[in-house]
């Protein structure tokens, strides 16, 4: 009897196990009102993009009409003659003493000439200067000169000289003319300014430089490198490329800035 009960229990247990294994799995139920969980989908990565190769023209050629000018060419009017070479930067013009320092800046080349200066070009407007009550500009006319005027003769010409101004007879009176270089006057004009160039002291007044000479003072050409702060009426502006020079009585002046003030430097001109 006991054996029969044992076999019966064994059969019951085996049937329950088989039933449990055959029961399908129910999906998980969510509570009402709870947000639905969306499946997380990884975005697909785009395929790697390859840049097209850069196509360059063979030999780095330029398009038609865009050719580069040959090296060493200059604009019209500033050309150098064949075989011309630039002078050295450290340049002392012929005849200069060792007390005159050489030019350390390259010259400005224009019209077949070199324009040497110690200082940089600094443009400022030209304003004619009146040097005194007895000074008159070129072309000024007087019916009579002062009694203190003296006669100065040079190159078969006679001038009347008074206070730094030269006169010639004209139309029954006297007209101011350009100072004759080389003439010797008995005395310096008043309010002259000493100008030292190298080891030489000049005296400047009214656009004219003087040096001591026998029986007076001689008018000389403006010495290269001299710096003055005022130029007289009658200067001519000369445009040489990018630089505007002032010309007076045959001498060229370059506008500069010296000691924080507008000034002018006498340039040396060579071929």
Descriptive notes:
It contains one helix and 18 strands. With 271 residues, it is mainly β. It has a domain of 163 residues. The strands form four sheets. A five-stranded antiparallel β-sheet has the order 3-7-6-5-4, with no helix packed on it. The termini are far apart.
The topology string of helices and strands comes to HEEEEEEEEEEEEEEEEEE
Using the alpha-carbon principal axes, give the shape: elongated
- In what range is the share of β-strand residues? 25-35%
> Mind describing the biggest β-sheet?
5 strands, antiparallel
As a percent range, the share of helical residues equals: under 10%
Average residue pLDDT: 80
Largest sheet strand order: 3-7-6-5-4
Q: Tally the helices.
A: 1
Q: What does the radius of gyration come to? A: 49 Å
Query: Runs with pLDDT <50, length 5+?
Result: 18-22
Summarize the structure.
This protein has about 270 residues and is mostly beta strands. The protein contains 1 helix and 18 strands. It has a 5-stranded antiparallel β-sheet with strand order 3-7-6-5-4, with no helix packed on it. It has a 5-stranded antiparallel β-sheet with strand order 8-12-11-10-9, with no helix packed on it. A 5-stranded antiparallel β-sheet has the order 13-17-16-15-14, with no helix packed on it.
């Amino acid at each position: 009897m006991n054996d029969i009960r044992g076999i019966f229990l064994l059969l019951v247990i085996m049937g329950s196990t088989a039933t449990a294994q055959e029961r399908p799995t129910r999906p998980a139920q969510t509570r009402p009102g709870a947000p639905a969980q969306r499946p997380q989908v990884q975005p697909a990565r785009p395929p790697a993009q390859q840049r097209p190769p850069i196509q360059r023209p063979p030999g780095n050629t330029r398009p038609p009409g865009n050719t580069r000018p040959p090296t060493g060419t200059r604009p019209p009017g500033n050309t150098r003659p064949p075989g011309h070479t630039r002078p050295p930067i450290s340049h002392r013009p012929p005849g200069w003493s060792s007390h005159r320092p050489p030019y350390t800046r390259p010259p400005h080349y224009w019209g077949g000439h070199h324009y040497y200066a110690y200082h940089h070009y600094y443009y400022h407007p030209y304003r004619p200067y009146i040097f005194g009550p007895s000074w008159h500009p070129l072309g000024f006319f007087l019916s009579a000169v002062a009694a203190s005027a003296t006669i100065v003769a040079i190159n078969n010409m006679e001038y009347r000289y008074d206070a730094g101004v030269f006169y010639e007879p004209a139309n029954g009176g006297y007209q101011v003319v350009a100072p004759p270089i080389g003439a010797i006057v008995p005395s310096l004009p008043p309010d002259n300014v000493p100008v030292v160039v190298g080891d030489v002291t000049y005296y400047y007044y009214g656009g004219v430089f003087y040096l001591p000479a026998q029986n007076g003072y001689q008018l000389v050409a403006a010495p290269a490198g001299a710096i003055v702060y005022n130029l007289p009426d009658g200067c001519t502006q000369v445009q040489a490329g990018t630089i505007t020079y002032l010309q007076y009585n045959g001498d060229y002046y370059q506008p500069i800035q010296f000691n924080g003030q507008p000034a002018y430097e006498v340039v040396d001109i060579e071929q």
